[in-house]
Write a structure and sequence with these properties.
cell wall biogenesis/degradation; signal; 3 domains; mainly beta; L,D-transpeptidase catalytic domain-like; five-stranded antiparallel beta sheet; peptidoglycan synthesis; Immunoglobulin-like; Big_10; transferase; 408 residues
Length: 408
């Protein structure tokens, strides 16, 4: 997903000085004056009214925050309408589109606040009515403009619009700037699944938020991510930068169990085993991770070096170009084609942690590695068992399935 940056523009507003507390009354009315020669005309000095009565003035007052003409208003927490010596009878806050902002009236009728944050870079008008104990009405109007963010969160994820993914797919949302208001961001990202699957988010740190259901997705499920972050203050002075719907689909199920003890991989598609693939895994000291790993990228032909994996001068250095590479972890675990360990594949473990499958040097679609690669989707599950290595960390690649649901 590409980061989305909306074009923002300010709106001119009227300038009225000071905080707003207005009181207005309505004038009376009368019938046409009687003719001078009419017997029903008032007689001078008779005590009959000769003019309209003085209009009643409401004891109620209305205060609107922020002040009229204010600019740079935060979209959350700064808008409030209150009544004194009376109760609010109507509050309407509207943007340039004329749509009313939903709000909550206090139980005693003296206060009103918006139910959710307003939009950034937007001009709003507030119209309010209140009445006193005698029913005399007062009205007030104010305009203000919300701020235009100087800093944005820099939001991205690992989903392509209308992409198809395996049943183990975890949606990982990243932020370029650290998120402090995690609950507000979490509330601004929701999932809609065609089968009603419940999806939960888990923060791994201030810049990474992953989402998954309790169990693997059901094949064929259509999912839409709803992003509503543009008006969310993700950290002091920093705002979200994306409002969009992002649809994707879950494809067929393919779960491969990688048994390091037998050097055989059972490939199960839609509940039926369709292949048994020989492989070589990590040797002693470079043991392959145990646990559930998910294909996070199909990289094809990839260069792999021992930098950061082996010690210089250990004799274990390598610099290889490998075909049919599928990344399983951020730390560098792959399922990939292997043309140099023929005697070990299916018999022993000889790699530096990766899962090597028989292939040619350049990679062939007819080899076991080529067939496995072509049949795989990003989001497919590889579950490693019986390795002497530890269980892969939940934040290493899309390893979230290794974290119990109760801790997610």
């Amino acid at each position: 997903m590409r980061n989305v940056k909306a074009k923002r523009g300010g709106y001119a507003v009227g300038a009225l000085a000071g905080a707003l507390v207005l009181m207005v009354t309505t004038a009376g009315c009368s019938t046409s004056p009687a003719k001078a020669d009419s017997p029903k005309s008032p007689v001078a000095g008779s005590g009959a009214a000769s003019a309209d009565p003085t209009p009643a003035v409401s004891a109620a007052t209305i205060a609107i925050e922020p002040a009229n003409g204010a600019t740079g208003v935060k979209p959350a927490g700064e808008v409030k309408v209150s009544a004194g010596n009376g109760k609010l009878t109507s509050v309407k806050v509207t943007g340039p589109d004329g749509i009313e902002v939903p709000g909550d009236l206090s139980s005693d009728g003296t206060g009103w606040t918006p139910k959710a944050g307003l939009a950034v870079s937007t001009a709003y008008t507030v119209d309010a009515l209140a009445q006193d104990a005698k029913g005399v009405v007062v009205n007030a109007r104010s305009t203000f403009t919300t701020l235009t963010p100087d800093k944005e969160a820099g939001t991205g994820d690992n989903i392509a619009d209308n992409g198809e993914y395996g049943v183990g797919m975890i949606v990982s949302v990243s932020f370029k700037r650290a998120v402090k208001n995690k609950d507000a961001v979490l509330a601004g990202i929701t999932f809609e699944a065609s089968d009603g699957t419940v999806v939960k988010g888990h923060w791994f740190n201030e810049k990474r938020l992953d989402f998954r259901p309790e169990n693997y997705w059901t094949p064929g499920t259509k999912v839409t991510i709803h992003y509503k972050l543009k008006n969310v203050e993700t950290a002091p002075g920093v705002y979200g930068d994306v409002d969009k719907d992002e649809p994707f689909t879950i494809g067929r199920s393919q779960i491969s169990t990688v048994d390091v003890a037998t050097h055989k991989m059972a490939v199960v598609r839609d509940g039926q085993q369709v292949d048994s693939v020989a492989f070589t895994a990590g040797k002693a000291g470079y043991d392959t991770w145990n646990g559930v790993m998910v294909v996070e990228a199909k990289e094809g032909t990839t260069r792999m070096t021992s930098a950061g994996v082996t010690k210089e001068g250990s004799g274990d250095e390598y610099d290889l170009v490998v075909p049919h590479a599928m990344r399983l972890t951020d730390s560098g675990t792959y399922v990939h084609g292997n043309s140099w360990s023929g005697s070990a594949i299916g018999r022993s473990n000889a790699s530096h942690g990766c899962i090597g499958v028989t292939d040619t040097t350049a990679g062939s679609p007819s080899t076991p590695a080529g067939k496995l690669y072509d049949s795989s989707l990003v989001g497919d599950v590889f579950k490693v068992v019986n390795s002497k290595g530890p269980v892969v960390s939940a934040d290493n690649g899309l390893g979230g399935w290794n974290l119990p649901w109760g801790q997610w």
